[in-house]
Amino acid sequence: MDRFSFLNAAHTEFFAQLYDQYLENPDSVEPSWRSFFQGFDFGMESFNGDAPQQYIKETNATPVENSLISAHLQKEFQVVKLIDGYRTRGHLFTKTNPVRERRTFTPNLDLENFGLSNADLNTVFDAAKILHLAPCSLTAILKHLELVYCQHIGIEYMYMRKPEVIQWIQDRIGVNDNQPNFSVDQKISILNKLNEAVSFENFLHTKYVGQKRFSLEGGESVIPALDALIERAAEKGVEQFVMGMAHRGRLNVLANIFGKSTQDIFGEFDGKDYDQEYFDGDVKYHLGLTADKITSSGKKISINLAPNPSHLETVGAVIEGITRAKQDKYFPNDFSKVLPIAVHGDAAIAGQGLLYEIIQMAQLDGYKTGGTIHIVINNQVGFTTNYLDARSSVYCTDVAKVTLSPVLHVNSDDAESVVHAMQFALDFRMEFGRDVFIDLLGYRKYGHNEGDEPRFTQPLLYKIIAKHKNPRDIYVEKLIAEGVINADLVKTLEKEYKDDLDQNLQASRKKDLTIISPFMKNEWNGFEQVTDSEMLYKVNTKVAKKTLDSIIETISTLPSDKKFISKISKIVNDRKTMYHNNAIDWGTAETLAYGTLLTEGYDIRISGQDVERGTFSHRHAVVKVEDSEEEVVLLNSIANKKGKFNVFNSLLSEYGVLGFDYGYALANPNALTIWEAQFGDFSNGAQIMIDQYISCGEDKWNNQNGIVMLLPHGYEGQGAEHSSARMERYLQLCARHNMFVADCTTPANFFHLLRRQMVTKYRKPLIVFTPKSLLRDSRCVSTQDELANGSFQETIDDVFVNKADVKSLVFCTGKFYYDITAERENNGRKDVAVVRIEQLFPLPVEQLKAIIATYPNVDDYVWAQEEPKNMGAYSFMLMNFNLVKWRLASLKAYSAPASGSYTRAKRRQADAIKMVFDKNLFR
Predict the structure, then answer these.
(1) Which residues are registered as beta bridge partners of 240?
(2) Deepest in the core among 263, 288, 319, 892, taking most CB within 10 A?
(3) Strand ranges (E), 92-158
(4) What's the rounded Cα separation, in Å, for the pair 617 and 649?
């Protein structure tokens, strides 16, 4: 045998030492080894009638001599290595690719690589007991291993680190040699769903020639697999499904799994207008659906397919958040009741880094969902890119190894194997609460879409595909050969399904409009959709002072029986001092807002990097005991608290975590769901979520969402990456009634802004540019009365001037107000008034007009900002407020938001402030 083979790495002495360990403590060795040793007596009881050679274990016994191990026993261990070879590498030698020969991998599973030969085929080996077989010939062992590991299902799992999990998998796949074993009724059910999948695509292909539908053809077996998954999961107690998938096969899933009316689907193909003007809709293969399904056993189950954009894999983060929200709300003690299913494309799962972020969430307290079933519809090509150019890894699913999740590679032409694998995946998830992956190897019958020509880039592959039978026809041949059905049954099934589609097509064409049902409408009962003008209505956010008095006592009192570092003790105790001195700072006002909402029955979830303490050490929602690091959350001690408070430091991710929290807010409108960026500009790591979901989800999919984004923003000499939250980008996205954008300057206004977000009967995303230096600025404080009896102010007029004396009227947002007013005080300028715009969108135009009308002698209107001219809110104000002609006071245009030099940044800031007071400095 080749002594450098990977299979020859273990020396016989190793097995002797392992046996010594077994004799000392049987439970200390891996289960399969324990089974092996138990079956042997570690000797030769049945070999040539010889008495077994025994190791004698005594105190201080000398090591076992290798000469005591017989030649046959060494052969036994070679068979053990053969078994291990199949377990670890068998997946490389499967029959899982329906249209291509598999790549060649070395070393292979030839007997010679294990020190065995054909001469050993008839020898009986006790090593078979490892496989839960009776002692049998090497031929029988090989047959079993080939069936289990090298047929239409290949499985990767030996990298997993928990012996009990490995043992469970081995026991499970050992049943019936890992081959499907379905009843006649189950086989006909599989055929019926396969027929629906194939016939649906054929119908659309003939009725809507050339229209994009992103056909499932080549992967139709996922339809009976999903159907079987839902049926089996319902029997195991799952009550809700949350599914996310891209465009490939989505219409087929909507029609044949979710039961979406094909009349509605045909209406979308015909390009009809929607029945509402409120939203603009999306293409048919992006739409979501919520439905109730009754299983064959009569169980009711809620199934949800989340809407998604073309940006691949983004929906994966969203469905995890939706799932967690449902688990927290309905099943906090049993996450298994809600099952997330993520359907991927092979190019996307390998190429999109978001997948890594999502998978890293899988076991984190703030983000885990009890295990996700990942299904890859593997076309073996991404648009025009061959799989060998699409990844460096062997498999597109190799990201699964990050969390040591098992992967099943399945030939999609074998519908029974696909269903069999899906059942394994479900059982694994329900048993261990962990992720599992199914790589469904198929093909894509047409190009990326039905109007694309794939032979430009894969001519050889598409010659094969053109001649290849679809999975239904392959399965029909199998069932006919087994005597399960005859050809007439297939013709009947196909005709009945096609006739139903024809009837729905005719009915659809009698309708003038298309109706889009909102996703998860049941979660939004009692909420209403509003216009931008209604978003400007005043909302009562007052709180009884006695409620504030009670909450401040709780959030400023640490447990007396625990020891805390002196700094945190002072910070917490100072909350009460500031409150009673009517000098409430930002962090205290924020915490009071959370406390009041909790007493009113709203849940609160805060998530993001370092949010428990806060990037700038202002929040301290979680306090650590000094000598044990026990966590103390004072907000959870509030008397009469009706809501749940959760705050989670996230992994170092923006894209994935914001997507998760968006999904959470989508599924629970009665939870204040906050994502906070470490610094505001870091949110651009999640730009796809902002552009494709947060800013336009309601307009595309008719879905409200109350996600709150807190984005630290302000120019304080910290350089290009820690100054600007890129206000201009959010304002560019604002239109109609899509979201709120605010830049508050007082703790009280932030307090009421947070409360307003929950007490309204509608939900909009809220973008808040939050302060940094103002967190500890003695000028940025509020009173008890402003919290108890105030309300959110979209604008704040200048109360420190005589309006008749004012010649220059300055408008600004955020921290710059304090910089400008400090300079005004230094210069003794009484002819300059400064108006704060606290809410930039919807812009309170009527309030601004009213304020302007109270200044009779103004001849100079200034827009002032600390951001460069090409950033900040300037362009937005030019476009949305033309009642006056602005004079700009700001930095000139720059490519980077701020200078890296502290001296230069302060000089530029000072110049912008000077421009406010001297119109001759305008540039």
Answers:
(1) 302, 338
(2) 319
(3) 124-125, 136-137, 153-156
(4) 13
Instruction: Enumerate the β-bridge partners of residue 339.
Output: 241
Residue type, 902: Y
Nearest to 246 by CA among 318, 311, 340, 321: 311
Cβ contacts of residue 560 below 8 Å, gap of 6+?
A: none
CB atoms inside a 10 Å sphere around CB 628: 9
Residue 799, burial from CB neighbour count under 10 angstroms (0-12, 13-18, 19+):
exposed
**CB 177, CB 150: distance < 8 Å:** no
Exposure class string for 308-320: b at 16+ Cβ within 10 A, else e? bbebbbbbbbbbb
- Give 313-363 as a 3 state SS string: CHHHHHHHHHHHHHHHHHCCCCHHHEEEEEEEEHHHHHHCCHHHHHHHCCC
| 226-245 tens-digit pLDDT | 999 999 999 999 999 999 99
Amino acid symbol at 324: R
Residue identified by tokens 């068998």 is 90
| Closest by Cα among 194, 196, 79 to 137 | 79
Give, as one character, the DSSP assignment of residue 884: S
Strand bridging mode 300-305 / 373-378? unpaired
The secondary structure of the chain in percent helix, strand, coil, rounded to multiples of 5, reads 45, 15, 40
Distance of alpha carbon 354 from alpha carbon 61, whole angstroms: 56
Residues of the chain falling short of pLDDT 70: 1-21, 23-24, 32-33, 35-69, 922-923
Q: What is the pLDDT of residue 388?
A: 85
Q: Give the H or E element holding residue 373.
A: strand 373-378
- Give bridge partners of residue 782 from the DSSP assignment: 584
Q: Can you read off the two tokens belonging to residue 591? A: 């915490």
Strand partners, 345: 377
Contact indicator for 894, 885 with CB cutoff of 8 Å: no
CA 657, chain centre distance (Å): 7
d(CA 731, CA 549): 38
User: Rounded to an integer, what is the distance from CA 817 to the centroid of its chain?
Assistant: 39
Residue-wise pLDDT for 347-390, tens only, equals 999 999 999 999 999 999 999 999 999 999 999 988 888 888 88
Q: Which of 495, 471, 409, 528 is nearest to 218 (CA)?
A: 471
What SS3 class is residue 418?
helix
- Residue 280 token pair: 């603009």
d(CA 657, CA 653): 6
- Among 348, 391, 384, which Cα is nearest to 462's? 384
709 beta partners: 675, 767
Please check whether residue 441 is in contact with residue 457, taking contact to mean a CB–CB distance below 8 angstroms: no
